[in-house]
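ugh ok so i messed up the first submission bc i forgot one of the chains. this is the corrected input, ALL of the components this time, i swear. 806 residues overall. if the numbers dont match what u have on ur side tell me asap before i send this to the collaborators (the ones from the other lab, u know who)
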Amino acid sequence: MSETKKTDPVATVPAQASAPEEREVLLKVEGLVKHFPIRKGLLKRQVASVKAVDGIDFEVRKGETLGVVGESGCGKSTMGRVITRLQDPTGGTIRFEGKDITRLNTAGMRPLRRDIQMIFQDPYGSLNPRHTIGSIVSAPFRLQGVEPEGGVKKEVQRLLELVGLSPEHYNRYPHEFSGGQRQRIGIARALALNPKLVVADEPVSALDVSIQAQVINLLDDLQDELGLTYVIIAHDLSVVRHVSDRIAVMYLGKIVELADRDQLYRSPMHPYTKALLSAVPIPDPKRKGGRNERILLKGDVPSPLSPPSGCRFHTRCWKATEVCRTTEPPLIELQVGQQVACHHPENFDDQQPQDTVLLTASEKESEPVTEEAVEAAPEETAAEEAAPAGTAAEETTVTGETGSEEPADGPGEPAGDAEAEEDAPAQATAASDDAEGTSEKK
Amino acid sequence: MTELSKTGAAVGEPAPASPDGTAFLDVRDLRVHFPTDDGLVKSVDGLSFQLEKGKTLSIVGESGSGKSVTSLAIMGLHRLGARGKNVQMSGEIWLDGKELVSADPDEVRRLRGREMAMIFQDPLSAMHPYYTIGNQIVEAYRVHHDVSKKAARVRAVEMLDRVGIPEPHKRIDAYPHEFSGGMRQRAMIAMALVNNPELLIADEPTTALDVTVQAQILDLIRDLQKEFGSAVVIITHDLGVVAEIADDVLVMYGGRCVERGTVDDVFERPQHPYTWGLLGSMPRIDRDTTDRLVPVKGQPPSLINVPSGCAFHPRCPYADVPKDNVTRTVRPELQQVGTGHWSACHLSPEDRTRIWTEEIAPKL
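and heres the new structure output, hopefully the right one now
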């Protein structure tokens, strides 16, 4: 992946309202890979590996918020733990302020822990129940041997006030606090040493809506006040839209689209981004009819044990063609501030216009029986009833976006053995489901 | 219990509609209290609502507002668990002309699964890990139908097929752990619907799922409802899901209903400051505004020491608008504010309209 990506976003991103190009790069990640080996047998030989993060490049600029979204299992949390060096990367490089931190050992990382902090998802699991709040929030000072001005206790109480808790909470224990308050404690701990980069893994997803809004506002205020840089990992696209300047969309260990917030939500280029955005329920009953624009992806994410060949999304993509099955699309900057890894992007010129035979069309011809079985489940709209007939043109018209789709009505060769993940029984669901795979417009 | 009924008489809110009991599901002044060492937890404290067949009611509220306890009480499952032994329950739950609160547990058991079924949030813990999916569906069917195992299995395959599980005749012998989250939720829906229940209660059915899978499951529930004409109660905290799927909305706060109405009423003309707060707390994916969210300040109330007067008054920005400290002393009753629209708030209708149109709506 790293060698395929030639564009350097720093050099090419020109002035955008929300993309301050003059900001220096704080964190630069190149070709980052994290595989978890699966070992079996007496000799514990490695039989396979979970490719949680499989070659991603991005950078985080000072003072910005980078949002990372994706479905569960796409590797976004692993990515967060690797860039904070809580886990060791399998390959690639991580540079923090220009310094390569990829292979630093524990002792080498220690001074950097001041600058890179993490906020965790579960406010119950991330606070030691036997420590008081004072001892939890002052732990960073103890570990780093820092003596703040005016003493540790005073500083901790200042931090508690900063995150909206009362200084009197100093001697209490975590169980005395609600979920939202605990998350604030976790934030106070992360901020104790005045970090430069804060990686927050699902910081609000365990909280109630009203509390969620309080914590989002708090993170927002702290960024303004302290000039923090955030990497916020979340699955809630509404939250990510609200907090981020730029957003990376991950699918099966890869970044498929990385773009400025407004561009991404206004005109997503990757079909997966489009499907993801269209699936979010909109809290507006007047737009109930908007369901018709929804792209329903069939099935689940394939197994990261053996991701599909070529473009990883091709098994579920309604625009996939032969080239998607064979060639992995590089993440390139198709438009200022918008990098996409797709052969047939939405809202942009087709990258492989010569390749027009849709895999969906050929699959339908080859496996009409299974197709019908799945078809029976969701509601039978006109588009769906038309689908088994194999007229891919029908689908492309429903897609109804810019003219980047190619009308294809000729049958192609069967999509054959695109699914190779049969080796994992637990994943058979995903695999068999993907066989019918492809997505539908409703 | 005696004390309970006394307070019930004192503050009981009138059932807002159809006292003749014609509704398919009619909950009247339901109270579910759990005595604990720390005090009496009033999880549900005087809740009334009706639901017709073919309609979907969404119950929204924060954690601890009593929405899940309500659903468990309807299903007669509130007695389970360590806290359930001493549960105090009063009120009436009418399901298709039968009263469930005073009914014999065995009678409720016969209805459970057959007339009313439930989908839980986490299908992995709601299914038995030791039995195959098929076994569990077959069991659910044979409890209520005197059929052979073979016939029940045919029915199970049919249901798995109906909920969109590919190759159901093979997957029926899979164990829950072999299914992905979305598939498991589908299997649980198949299990819940195997007896064609007329009431389906879904407690946060999509909270544990990814958005793409959530869209599939919501579509499935909607289709199945159309097909079977069941009444559906969906408990959720996601207002996006509510807007998608519900006909009516019931907003719960501190164990009581604070607002009830059609989904259009509640989203377009909300009449309770707590509903305003919920709407203001939500980051919107469909709007370009990146202004600050307007959260509800403070924490959800303790159900042991529910604040006096209006339970929402400590967090309500408008608690001092009504005169004579009434928000702190008198508990507001549900009052009709429009056709099929009720709200429990001391603010005068003029104040409410003014605050909504001038202060809240422009910020959303």
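quick check: Residues 1-19 of chain B have pLDDT under 50 and may be disordered. that seems consistent at least. Chain B touches chain A through 63 residues (CB under 8 Å).
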